[in-house]
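Possible race condition, two jobs.
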Amino acid sequence: MIPVKNDSIETRLAEVREELLGLKNFPDSEFVGIIKELGFRCEFCARCCTKEFNDHVFLLDSDLERIRNIDPGAITPAPYYEFCDQKSRFYVSGYALKTKPDGSCIFLENRRCKIYESRPSICRVYPHMLHREADETGKIDWRQISGLNEHGSYHSELDDSTCEAVALETRAYEEAYLKQMIDFFEAVRTHFGKKGLKHVQRTYDRKMREFLKSECELEVFVYCKGRFEKHNLEPDIESL
């Protein structure tokens, strides 16, 4: 078999590996200082639990088994599938929580989380984060908080131990996320190489247009704990 070159996979794999290295080299003291300066405190407004403020809640593999034990019907393939092969099959790096018709999280009830003690990792660290992201001018730099001044209160007095704990937990989440992405890209690369497949953007765009017009279902392979799980997704007729 002639190997299929998938430049997009290699490029994205290299980018994620570079970000992981940057994350490991980001000074703890600087991150702790930023957390202390911002002084964020949650005011239980529940805005972060809606699509108005957050597009989706991505689940790490470590979150998935816990959520499945609580409610196996609460998960769905994460949106924005990374790849589509020439046979119109999509590939995505993990699962996300489902949302209600109004855009709120499936576990949100009366502005409170029904599974608060077992909530996903990203919910535990939000709005703190530590990853590279483009700003409004397109400049890519480290971003340490999401939704600045859109929810919660700021400039609260936080002691050093609290800031250090937030930094530690946030860094652990970001590292776990990047490692999961690296595993996903490597798995796709191996799968494509064995099967003679390649990512085809034209096929991706065409199938998504058909899906959004309710003309077809999608065959999606979700990466989970070292393997792919197949899903056949039907279009959401009610939202059309």
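Job #2 (started ~2 s after job #1):
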Amino acid sequence: MKAIWNDTVIAESNDTIVIEGNHYFPPSAIKDEYFSKTDYHTVCPWKGTASYYTLKVNGEENKDAAWYYPETKEMAKNIENYVAFWKGVEVKE
């Protein structure tokens, strides 16, 4: 699977995990140069507290467009630190 934003592949992996329709990419699959951590957080009742990244690609910014769970609840341990996308990031084969 590939995550693409602003005509650039920002993550790529054959080992994504699909939960609730979102592909979660292993931490090693993301291209760090495009990601910067933000102070934004949300809470999922069964996964835990999500942290977010802003994407910066080709001079453009997509605020809080990727999220991950640095410490998941027990039911979501398989996606701890895995990264998922929204806000116009295209995920495809």
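Residues 62 and 74 are 30 Å apart (CA to CA).
Logs attached separately.
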